[in-house]
Amino acid sequence: DQQVKQNSPSLSVQEGRISILNCDYTNSMFDYFLWYKKYPAEGPTFLISISSIKDKNEDGRFTVFLNKSAKHLSLHIVPSQPGDSAVYFCAARSNNDMRFGAGTRLTVKP
Amino acid sequence: EAGVAQSPRYKIIEKRQSVAFWCNPISGHATLYWYQQILGQGPKLLIQFQNNGVVDDSQLPKDRFSAERLKGVDSTLKIQPAKLEDSAVYLCASSLGEGGRRSYTFGSGTRLTVV
User: Fold this and answer.
1) How far apart are alpha carbons A100 and A36 in whole angstroms?
2) Sign of the torsion angle spanned by Cα atoms B70, B1, A64, B38
3) Contacts of residue B98 in chain A, CB cutoff 8 Å?
4) Residue A89, min C-alpha distance to chain B (Å)
5) Residue A35 and residue A46: Cα distance in Å, rounded?
6) What is the pLDDT of residue A15?
7) Are B81 and B22 in contact (CB under 8 A)?
8) Would you place residue B97 in the very low, low, confident or very high pLDDT band (cuts 50, 70, 90)?
9) In this complex, is the C-beta atom of A51 within 8 Å of any C-beta atom belonging to chain B?
10) Could you read off the pLDDT of B24-80 as tens digits, one per residue?
11) What region, left, alpha or beta, does residue A102 occupy, with left being phi > 0 and alpha being psi -120 to 50 degrees?
């Protein structure tokens, strides 16, 4: 069962522009959400997270927005840089259970 | 701090053979996870340890997969016998505690190809 969905397998943006990666979830018990970034031949690395009691969390160029009523979260990267090119995984936690989306491959073109 | 170490990085075996993966988590991290990531999919939890005890192994195919974490530190994941559909990247992750607002630290993974 896919409790966490990333419906866009890929996204291409121009350097300097905004990248918006989307994620939807179905389980209302999830109370903590994370984004991971993965480069080829490396493990996923933690990027940013948000608790369900918030609707926005910002860290430098990265901002995560959470819409609980829509069960939707998004990651905004502004401005996008070529080094941001990677696969981004959305993850959602409930107690000890963390589920991942299938990932979105972001390509930032110079 | 040193990251999560995994070995080997790559492994190619024939179906019905056995294989083992090793993971050394970050020092002091009580919780250790093994994930399976099939190409084009997100990581799927296979088993979670809290110290040397199993917290969750509900998605581990126990007829062929086994894992242990002796002394609550290193862990090994074994597949015996392997099937073609076991081809995937096997990721080990660790975190300080069970639950809570913790992110996981992942290793680089072991890419298994079963031919």
Assistant:
1) 9
2) negative
3) 96
4) 7
5) 6
6) 98
7) no
8) low
9) yes
10) 999 989 899 999 999 989 999 999 999 889 999 999 999 999 999 988 899 999 999
11) alpha
